[in-house]
C-alpha cells in the first residue's frame, strides 16, 4: 500500500459535530497533531438546526450551521487537519488502530476519538423533510422555546416522547400527542404524568398522515388507524420523538455498546473497552443529547487521549 492510500497519524477524530471539533481544539493545543474526518454530515445534527439559543456565549442566539463553521475555524486555527471523508471500516484488534476512509484510504492511528453522533429517526414524510427547521424538529429541549404559548404536536410513545411532551406542556398552550397504538411504551410513571397533565391531549390509534404548511408548519393531518378517519389539527410546531440511532455500526465487534448501539464508556470518562479508543458526544450519550454536553465530552476525550498517549510515550 503506497503513501497515498496509507497514512499513520497520532490522533484520529472521526466525526465533526460539537464533540469532534472540541476534541480537535484540545488535541491540537496539546500538540497531538489531530486529523479529523468530517463524515457524512459535516458539522453534525446542528447543521439541520436553525436558531440555537441555548449554547453559552451567543447572547443573541446563532444559526446552527454558522455555529459549526465557528467550531471548525477554531479547530483549524489551532492546527487540526480537517478533511472530507467517511470512515467506512475499522480494525481495533491491535495497535496501531486501523480505520479505512471512503473504503480506500487506510489510516493507522495511535489513538482514535469516536464522535460520530446519532441520527434522529424520522417518519419518512416528504413534508417532514421539507419543513425541517421550519416548525419540524426532533428536539423539544432545543426548539420548544420558539413555540411558547402556541399549539404543537408530538409523535412518539416512549419515555423520550413522554418527557418531551411534558417539557413542551410547560411552554405551549396545548400539546397534541400522537400515539400509533392504544398503549404507550413509556414507563408507567411517565404515562401517568402525561395523562394527568391537562394541556396534553393524547390521540390513541393515530398516525401522522401529513404535515401541512407552505413555508412553515401550520397544521398536521392525522389518521385514525382503526376507522381511517382523518383530522386536521392546527399547530405551529411538530416534534418527532420516535428515537435516535447512534452512528456506531462500523465499530461493532470491537467496541462495547448497549442494546440500542450507544457506545459504552467508563462512567466519568470517555474511555471505551479498547484502551486507545475514546468516545464523545451523542454516539455515547442517549440521555442529554445537547450541543454543550457533546462539546464537554469532546474535551474529556481529548484529555483522556492525551494522557493515554503520554503514558505510552508517544505524545
For the structure shown, list the relevant keywords:
2 domains; FAD/NAD(P)-binding domain; 24% helix; 7 helices; single chain; alpha/beta; 315 residues; 7-stranded mixed β-sheet
Structural notes for this entry:
The protein has 315 residues and is α/β, with parallel strands linked by helices. It has two domains: 6-119 and 244-312, FAD/NAD(P)-binding domain, CATH 3.50.50.60; 122-240, FAD/NAD(P)-binding domain, CATH 3.50.50.60. It contains seven helices and 19 strands. The strands form five sheets. Strands 1, 2, 5, 6, 7, 8 and 19 form a seven-stranded mixed beta sheet that branches. A five-stranded parallel beta sheet has the order 10-17-11-12-13, with helices on one face. Strands 14-15-16 form a three-stranded antiparallel beta sheet. It is elongated, with a radius of gyration of 21 Å. It starts with 5 loop residues before the first strand and ends with a helix.
Number of helices: 7
Sheet with the most strands, sense and barrel status: 7 strands, mixed
| Annotated CATH topology of the largest domain | FAD/NAD(P)-binding domain
What percent of residues are in strands? 25-35%
- Rg from C-alpha positions? 21 Å
Mean pLDDT: 94
**Fraction of residues in helix:** 10-25%
Low-pLDDT parts are none
Task: Please describe the topology of this protein.
Layout: E1 6-14, H1 18-29, E2 34-37, E3 51-52, E4 62-63, H2 64-78, E5 81-83, E6 87-91, E7 97-101, E8 105-114, E9 118-120, H3 126-130, E10 136-137, H4 140-143, E11 151-155, H5 159-169, E12 174-178, H6 188-195, E13 200-203, E14 206-212, E15 219-224, E16 230-234, E17 237-240, E18 244-246, E19 277-279, H7 291-312
Parallel strand pairs: 1-2, 1-8, 2-5, 8-19, 10-17, 11-12, 11-17, 12-13
Antiparallel strand pairs: 3-4, 6-7, 7-8, 9-18, 14-15, 15-16
Helix pairs in contact: 1-2, 1-7, 5-6
Amino acid at each position: 500500500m503506497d503513501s497515498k492510500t496509507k497514512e499513520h497519524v497520532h490522533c484520529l477524530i472521526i466525526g465533526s459535530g460539537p464533540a469532534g471539533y472540541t476534541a480537535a481544539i484540545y488535541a491540537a493545543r496539546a500538540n497531538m497533531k489531530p486529523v479529523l474526518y468530517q463524515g457524512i454530515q459535516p458539522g453534525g445534527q446542528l447543521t439541520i438546526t436553525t436558531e440555537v439559543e441555548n449554547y453559552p456565549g451567543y447572547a443573541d442566539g446563532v444559526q446552527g450551521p454558522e455555529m459549526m463553521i465557528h467550531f471548525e475555524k477554531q479547530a483549524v486555527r489551532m492546527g487540526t487537519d480537517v478533511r472530507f471523508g467517511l470512515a467506512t471500516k475499522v480494525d481495533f484488534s491491535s495497535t496501531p488502530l486501523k480505520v479505512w476512509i471512503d473504503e480506500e484510504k487506510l489510516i493507522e492511528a495511535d489513538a482514535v476519538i469516536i464522535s460520530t453522533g446519532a441520527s434522529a429517526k424520522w417518519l419518512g414524510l416528504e413534508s417532514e423533510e421539507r419543513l425541517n427547521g421550519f416548525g419540524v424538529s426532533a428536539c423539544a429541549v432545543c426548539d420548544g422555546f420558539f413555540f411558547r404559548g402556541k399549539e404543537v404536536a408530538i409523535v412518539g410513545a416512549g419515555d423520550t416522547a413522554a418527557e418531551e411532551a411534558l417539557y413542551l406542556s410547560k411552554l405551549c398552550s396545548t400539546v397534541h400527542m400522537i400515539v400509533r397504538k392504544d398503549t404507550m411504551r413509556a414507563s408507567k410513571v411517565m404515562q401517568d404524568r402525561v395523562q394527568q397533565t391537562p394541556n396534553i391531549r393524547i390521540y390513541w390509534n393515530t398516525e401522522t398522515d401529513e404535515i401541512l404548511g407552505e413555508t412553515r408548519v401550520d397544521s398536521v393531518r392525522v389518521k385514525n388507524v382503526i376507522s381511517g378517519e382523518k383530522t386536521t389539527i392546527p399547530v405551529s410546531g411538530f416534534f418527532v420523538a420516535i428515537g435516535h440511532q447512534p452512528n456506531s455500526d462500523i465499530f461493532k465487534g470491537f467496541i462495547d455498546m448497549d442494546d440500542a448501539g450507544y457506545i459504552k464508556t467508563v462512567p466519568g470518562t470517555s474511555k471505551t473497552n479498547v484502551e486507545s479508543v475514546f468516545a464523545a458526544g451523542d454516539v455515547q450519550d442517549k440521555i442529554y443529547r445537547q450541543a454543550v454536553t457533546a462539546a464537554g465530552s469532546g474535551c474529556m476525550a481529548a484529555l483522556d487521549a492525551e494522557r493515554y498517549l503520554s503514558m505510552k510515550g508517544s505524545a
